[in-house]
Amino acid sequence: MGEKGLQTPAKKLFLWVRKQSKKVKTVLGFVTCLTLLLTLRLLIHDHNHFFVLAELLHFIGLLCLIYKLSTLKTCSGLSLKTQVLTAIFLAVRVFCSFIMEGDIHTILDFVTLVATLWVIYMMKFKLKSSYMENLDTMHYWYLIVPCAVAAIFIHPATAHFFLFRILWAFCVYLESISVLPQLRLMQNVQIIEPFTAHYVFALGVARFLGCAHWINQVYDTRGAYLYLAGRGYFWIPMVFLAEIVQTFILADFCYYYIKSVISGQLLVRLPQPV
């Protein structure tokens, strides 16, 4: 049998999509996202579960990294800067959540924070020789400073202490762009090994779930949720924007990840930057 005889329906569909024009691909992507949103809306009735699933997926992605670091003994292809930024926003969120909420999210974030700190320790000390520092080129302050400035001016208008509200906004904004150093490193490398790819894909799906939560909230309130006075007129639109930005940042990688899986390839190959 030839290669065509061995093609699965999913691979045939992907090959058909790849032949389409950019406009058709955009429409197909929009329809796919809309279908997934409607499916999630029918299956998940409590919007809070979207965030729980997103946090669980982030932790599952970290488990892939932990497996890689502990068995393969290499951290090649991983951005230490993304892990540090992740630890920063998780530490801030755990602190704020413990004071302001203290629920299941606090526990999940704390467990994820511990796992992230372990990954940082392994990359910085145990497996330092395999860390691609010369390719991890994005500077921390280019990401941290804009998030801090935005948090000072746009934060939730709740009854909590002023500093806590700023910190909460800061961790939301930082989370939305914390993956950028990892994406920059992967663009420099262009060939991504499986466990790193699984981790980034898990982040992409997690962000899609977070975005789905806000879209459902806005839809259910016919847009009124965006302007709840009790949260500040600009706060919720900024959170919604942050979720959308992070989803789109990761969408391109998720496309190439799915392409590689359907093609039966272990490595994810990214196109050369134009």
UniProtKB/TrEMBL annotation:
Indicate the principal place this protein occupies in or around the cell.
Answer: endoplasmic reticulum
Q: Name one GO molecular function term.
A: ER retention sequence binding
Gene Ontology terms: cellular component:
endoplasmic reticulum membrane
- Superkingdom field: Eukaryota
Q: Membrane-spanning residues where?
A: 26-44, 50-70, 82-100, 106-127, 139-156, 195-215, 235-258
Give the InterPro entries listed for this entry: ER_ret_rcpt
Query: Residues of the signal sequence?
Result: none
Q: What membrane topology is given?
A: Multi-pass membrane protein
**Which BP terms in the Gene Ontology apply to this protein?**
protein retention in ER lumen; protein transport; vesicle-mediated transport
Instruction: Provide the protein's localization.
Output: Endoplasmic reticulum membrane
The UniProt entry, under Pfam families, shows: ER_lumen_recept
Keywords in alphabetical order, please. Answer: Endoplasmic reticulum, ER-Golgi transport, Membrane, Protein transport, Receptor, Transmembrane, Transmembrane helix, Transport
Family membership: Belongs to the ERD2 family.
Question: PANTHER family, alphabetically?
Answer: ER LUMEN PROTEIN RETAINING RECEPTOR (PTHR10585)
Q: Specify the protein name.
A: ER lumen protein retaining receptor
Record the organism. Answer: Anisodus acutangulus
Q: What is the lineage of its organism?
A: Eukaryota, Viridiplantae, Streptophyta, Embryophyta, Tracheophyta
